[in-house]
Amino acid sequence: MNDGIRTKKNKFETLNRVIALLIFLWIFLLSIKLLGEVFKHFFSEQAQNLIANATDDPFVSLFIGILATAIIQSSSSTTSIIVAFVASGSMTYMNAIPMVLGANIGTSVTGIIVAFGQVRNKLEFKRSFSAAIVHDFFNTFGVILFFPLELYTHYLSGTAKYLTDLLLGSSSVTFDSPLDTLVKSASQWIELSIAGVFGCVSDGKCHYNGWLLTVMIIVSLSLLFTALYYISAIMKKILIGKFEKIIHKFIFNHTLTAFLFGVIFTLLVQSSSVTISLIVPLVGAGIFTLDQIFPYAVGANIGTTITGMLAALVSGNANAITIALVHTLFNISGAVVFLPLRIIPVASAKWFSNKCYQNRLWAFGYVIVMFFIVPIIIIFLNS
After folding, report:
1. Distance between CA atoms of residues 17 and 10, nearest Å
2. Ramachandran class of 73: left when φ > 0, alpha when ψ lies in -120 to 50, beta otherwise
3. Is the alpha carbon torsion for 156, 158, 163, 167 positive or negative?
């Protein structure tokens, strides 16, 4: 009798935890959506101007891609903007290629921001930061390898051009992220409500100023860090026992399954930022290891290219399709090289996260210097 009551109690507790987890996952996704919308609305014009004013210098274009994506926190958005410029004829696809590569680096900033949610606990922050930074290091090493290769051999653009000829005539399709649908209305309501308090709404749209930007960032980050705290705590309780063993055994304990899971999940949500951001706190909590989630992060990079591909197919422009294919080929090439050589990005991430464990200013400095100061200096000096 006591065993039966205990079993029912355990099931009830598990159900409550799952419901609470779903609620905080929704809040987490809402915070990511809000943060992205804030940066898009306030900085989208600047980001688009950066992209549109790309020079013929591929090195400068690379850093424009990094900075523009760090500003709007979405390589999918940056790639879609680039595809639109190429489709309109206002940019050549050769100028666009370095920016697409830069976008892969810039998109890592969201996962790093998420890692700061565990900054109060040095050990958890070390683990979560390593999970976020390994994605960035993977992308950076990929650029170091394939950017010069593209400049001298046109490996990416040449292959993409060939594939474009095979793809022309494909039917145009559209796809809306189901997760975006879940949070879009709430995000718009919060944004308009707060903007209304500051008198920054006209014609049903928000018009940002400094005060509204500050408050929206505070609200977004508060929701983000609160959700992460409870997600981590709940996941620790849920994943104790058989379920944890199943996930470890059948998904994250094998390179192929973790990789495919990263590809498929990112295909569905159309955002590698969300895919990486969800796993970062779980690594911080000690549920998964850096080595386990690396293939998942690599898969996410490939999955995120679907947005640009769909935008290109809808445009029906051959050069736009070529750019989208360059993005996909770059990420596939990176996977082919660095999945067998994962020791390079993984060891680098562990080394740098140890630096951040000793002094967390390393982490803050990395974000500011890597994603903003260096790109701004290079772009300014060559403008």
Report:
1. 10
2. left
3. positive
Report the C-alpha gap between 147 and 150 in whole angstroms: 5
pLDDT of residue 242: 55
- Asked whether the predicted pLDDT for residue 238 surpasses 80, the reply is no
In the chain, which ranges are continuous DSSP H helix? Answer: 2-52, 58-72, 75-88, 93-106, 109-115, 122-153, 155-167, 178-197, 210-238, 242-247, 255-269, 272-284, 290-303, 306-315, 318-338, 343-358, 361-368, 374-381
Token code pair at residue 163: 């594939």
175 and 183 Cβ atoms separated by less than 8 Å: no
Q: Which of 377, 366, 375 is closest to 113 using CA atoms?
A: 366
Contact 42, 24 (CB under 8 A): no
Length of the chain equals 383
Query: How many angstroms separate the CA atoms of 270 and 278, rounded?
Result: 14
Short-list 119, 114, 106, 133, CA closest to 350: 133
pTM greater than 0.90 (yes/no): no
Q: What are the residues facing 115 on neighbouring strands?
A: none
| pLDDT tens string 143-190 | 999 999 998 998 988 898 888 887 665 444 444 555 567 777 888 888
Phi, then psi, of 202 in degrees rounded to 5: -150, 140
Tell the residue number behind the tokens 């991430």, with chain if given.
Answer: 349
Query: Which element (helix H / strand E) includes 372?
Result: none
336-360 pLDDT, tens digit each: 999 999 999 999 999 999 998 888 8
Helix axis angle for 374-381 and 58-72, nearest 10°, is 140
